[in-house]
């Protein structure tokens, strides 16, 4: 069995590695020659615990090879980014380009799968493209949509153990895709059609976005009402059927802050809660930046000098070193811009150095600062002593009970 993975990013590369580890011959394709070169040298270009050793192993045994062009295989997987354009319209041009690249290689009996998060109807569009150019393959190849669900930081475990949803163009396609994924997935493989599988992925991340927005909205209300939001949520969650998530300084990463737009762009009239949740979560980062700016002004009026501020955390969530689309980064930039970069100590304990921010050790920054702003709930911050003489802005519940 030979499989071709189009895209060696945060999902494509780990999936290719795990599949290779389970005996499938893998050709991993990426348009970036640097990624291809690093992968062939057994060097991981993404950040994911435990993955480096696995890559080294499958490259050494020859199970995985990277290239800038696809090769004739038995199965083809589209695992490329689906960003959105300026107006939040989904951009499926990478899926289309990857599909066009494999169309000339397709032969009878092959499997073609889209894993990229995609707007509803993308698989049907790619079918039209494939059969438009290769009409002789109609009913002769298998086509399915199968989204990934792994949590960055826990990919090795989740790729194998999570349940997956597999939506085939027809029953035979679903069967063929299930046959492939069952080579390395131990979770249940749930059957459906392409459209439902596409919508399922968007629904999962939108559901989380809506739930986080609820928590963030509560945090705004509680701030005005003088109520500790962390205590409130903890108490409300004692109800057997209530499970509120945690507020933070916004929603980051490449998934939850993006995927809901794939629904709102296509169904603007119907997706009221989903679009409002996006607005609330975006607004939360803006609100945090304003809170910091107000605290700075208040300090200056009271002490007649500029405060030293510690911005604690840049990552998009706790205990990772991934800064992609991180609200903490946005807030820090906004605060720095408002005071000519003066007296701001930027902290990210999970990153050695950064090309924009000069990083300070978290203990040193906490010690020196007049105003401490907790942006990300990294575990190491929780051991810092509570100092009543400092102004503490705790946006992520470091000191929650
Ligand atoms: N966040 C909160 N409060 C919470 C939980 C999260 O503010 O209670 C924030 C985080 O700080 C972060 C953002 O939400 O900024 C997203 O973090 P996350 O841990 O919720 O999710 P991701 O983006 O790391 O991964 C998600 C997962 N989807 C769901 O949990 C429904 C993952 O399973 C998906 O595979 C991934 O998106 C993806 O690739 O789509």
Automatic annotation (TrEMBL):
Record-annotated UDP-glucose/GDP-mannose dehydrogenase C-terminal domain positions: 310-401
Listed EC numbers: 1.1.1.336
Matches recorded under Pfam families: UDPG_MGDP_dh, UDPG_MGDP_dh_C, UDPG_MGDP_dh_N
GO molecular function, one term: UDP-N-acetyl-D-mannosamine dehydrogenase activity
Coiled-coil ranges (or none): none
Keyword annotations: NAD, Oxidoreductase
Alphabetical list of SMART domains matching this protein: UDPG_MGDP_dh_C (SM00984)
Record GO biological process: polysaccharide biosynthetic process
Listed SUPFAM superfamilies: 6-phosphogluconate dehydrogenase C-terminal domain-like, NAD(P)-binding Rossmann-fold domains, UDP-glucose/GDP-mannose dehydrogenase C-terminal domain
The keyword Ribonucleoprotein is annotated on this UniProt entry: no
Record NCBIfam families: NDP-sugDHase, PRK11064.1
Family: Belongs to the UDP-glucose/GDP-mannose dehydrogenase family.
Name assigned to this protein: UDP-N-acetyl-D-mannosamine dehydrogenase
Organism (species): Bacteroides muris (ex Fokt et al. 2023)
């Amino acid at each position: 069995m030979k499989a071709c993975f189009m895209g060696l990013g945060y999902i494509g590369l780990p999936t290719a590695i795990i599949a290779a580890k389970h005996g499938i011959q893998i050709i991993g394709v990426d348009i970036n020659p640097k990624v291809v070169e690093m992968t062939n040298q057994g060097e991981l270009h993404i950040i994911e615990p435990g993955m480096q050793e696995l890559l080294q192993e499958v490259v050494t045994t020859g199970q995985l090879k990277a290239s800038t062009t696809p090769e004739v295989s038995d199965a083809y997987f589209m695992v490329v980014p689906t960003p959105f354009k300026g107006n939040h319209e989904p951009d499926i041009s990478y899926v289309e380009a990857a599909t066009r690249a494999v169309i000339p290689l397709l032969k009878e009996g092959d499997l073609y799968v889209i894993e990229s998060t995609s707007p509803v109807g993308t698989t049907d569009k790619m079918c039209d493209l494939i059969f438009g150019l290769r009409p002789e393959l109609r009913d002769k190849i298998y086509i399915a949509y199968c989204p990934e669900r792994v949590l960055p930081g826990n990919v090795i475990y989740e790729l194998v153990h999570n349940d997956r949803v597999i939506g085939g163009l027809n029953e035979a396609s679903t069967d063929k895709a299930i046959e492939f994924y069952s080579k390395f997935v131990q979770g249940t493989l749930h059957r459906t059609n392409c459209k439902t599988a596409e919508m399922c992925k968007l629904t999962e991340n939108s559901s989380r976005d809506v739930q986080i927005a609820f928590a963030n909205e509560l945090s705004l209300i509680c701030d005005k009402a003088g109520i500790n939001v962390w205590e409130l949520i903890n108490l409300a969650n004692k109800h057997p059927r209530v499970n509120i998530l945690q507020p933070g300084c916004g929603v980051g990463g490449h998934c939850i802050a993006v995927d809901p737009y794939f629904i709102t762009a296509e169904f603007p009239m119907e997706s009221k809660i989903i679009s409002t949740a996006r607005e609330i979560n975006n607004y939360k980062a803006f609100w945090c930046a304003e809170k910091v700016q107000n605290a700075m002004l208040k300090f200056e009026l009271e002490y007649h000098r500029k405060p030293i501020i510690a911005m604690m955390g840049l990552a998009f969530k706790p205990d990772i070193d991934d800064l992609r689309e991180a609200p903490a980064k946005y807030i820090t930039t906004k605060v720095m811009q408002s005071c000519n970069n003066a007296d701001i100590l930027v902290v990210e304990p999970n990153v050695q150095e950064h090309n924009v921010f000069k990083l300070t050790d978290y203990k040193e920054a906490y010690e020196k600062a007049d105003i401490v702003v907790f942006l990300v709930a990294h575990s190491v911050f929780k051991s810092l002593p509570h100092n009543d003489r400092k102004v503490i802005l705790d946006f992520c519940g470091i000191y929650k009970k």
